[in-house]
Design goal:
Length: 254
């Protein structure tokens, strides 16, 4: 296999040049970090599971008409994606109070919210991703009003679909974070779902026991982190065919 040029490395993924113009290869790492990078570790097999889970959810969303950057999975840890112009926003949907919402507003964790709430955070690690309003977003040109209309409509659709999908396998979608990008095709532009959807950026609780099945197990030193990610994949019916021995996966080509 030809060596690929690395374009970017983040906390959980690496982006490489794609095999054809307009594409990238997204590699999922086992690295985990939280608290703005002050806590770091390895969750064995996380990259393999997140690759599979994100593939599954992106494909399902595509089937209901949500445009995404996903093209196809290449191997255990890599997927082919369309190259997009990332909008520098983290879009967070909250269905149940947890995490920073509970801390900021003093709402007990686990409280069902009157309705789903959308929050925006400026995608800037140096500033620790501060929360922003739509006024900031449009004033600073990160996205215009038409972009925001598309983002809100897509986000609500994603939330409705994923909430039902997870509930069907006994999981409550507490909250989640998504990102969007501009996909240019000749002179036409459309907003598409980008990044990933996995237990790294979703809070997922068992619907009966409220047991956490996501990255909070790492953040809060709850233990059994790997098992939680595997259980999400198992319930979705996408645990790697050969079982846990596959989870190390191949190394990234550079």
């Amino acid at each position: 296999m030809a060596r690929r040029r690395q374009l970017y490395e983040g906390k959980a993924k690496v982006l490489f040049e794609g095999p054809e113009p307009g594409t990238l290869v997204q590699y999922f790492k086992d690295d985990a970090s939280t608290a703005n990078g002050t806590k770091k570790g390895i969750i064995t097999g996380k990259g393999v599971l997140n690759n599979r889970i994100s593939e599954y959810l992106m494909v399902r969303l595509g089937e209901i008409g949500v445009p995404t950057h996903f093209v196809r999975r290449l191997n255990m840890r890599e997927q082919l994606i369309r190259e997009v112009e990332i909008i520098p926003l983290q879009v967070v949907v909250r269905n149940v109070a947890a995490g920073s919402l509970s801390t900021r507003l003093g709402i007990p964790e686990g409280t069902r919210l009157p309705r789903s709430i959308i929050e925006y955070y400026y995608k800037n690690e140096a500033l620790n991703a501060p929360m922003v309003a739509e006024e900031h977003i449009t004033a600073f040109g990160w996205a215009n009003t038409a972009d925001m209309d598309d983002i809100v409509a897509l986000t609500l659709r994603v939330n409705d679909f994923l909430s039902g999908l997870f509930l069907g396998v006994g999981i409550t979608l507490i909250d989640f974070k998504v990102e969007y990008g501009r996909l240019w095709e000749d002179d036409d532009m459309r907003i598409v779902l980008a990044d990933e959807i996995s237990p790294d950026n979703c809070r997922l609780w068992d619907s009966k026991t409220n047991e956490k099945m996501d990255k909070d197990r790492f953040r809060r030193d709850l233990g059994r982190v790997e098992e939680a990610y595997q259980e999400v994949a198992r319930r979705l019916g996408i645990l790697p065919e050969a079982g846990s021995r596959d989870l190390k996966g191949p190394e990234a080509m550079q």
